[in-house]
Amino acid sequence: MIRHIFIAPVKDGVPAELLEARIAQMRGLATAVDGVEGFALGRNLALLAPLDAVVMVVDLADRAAFDALIASPLHQEISASAAEAFDVEHFSITQVEI
Hints:
By secondary structure, the protein is of the alpha+beta class. The chain has helices at residues 16-27, 63-71, 73-81, and strands spanning 2-9, 36-43, 53-60, 92-97.
């Protein structure tokens, strides 16, 4: 199984409505492709650091499911508009085998 972890810092001054719309859009990834076995999405609680960020963790059955998620039309749509709400140059993205 592959765990995909994504941290997207929120740009300063982004309207709450825009950010909530992007988060709602990202929630659709939970059912975008076969092979998603777990999904969590939320705002950073900032318990150890003050970073305002949206964090997504997706557990995928295998590499084929990961590749399908990244290539999905919804993921492509989200990626194309990410810079409206997020500091795309400071994304943190990693995948680990679990």
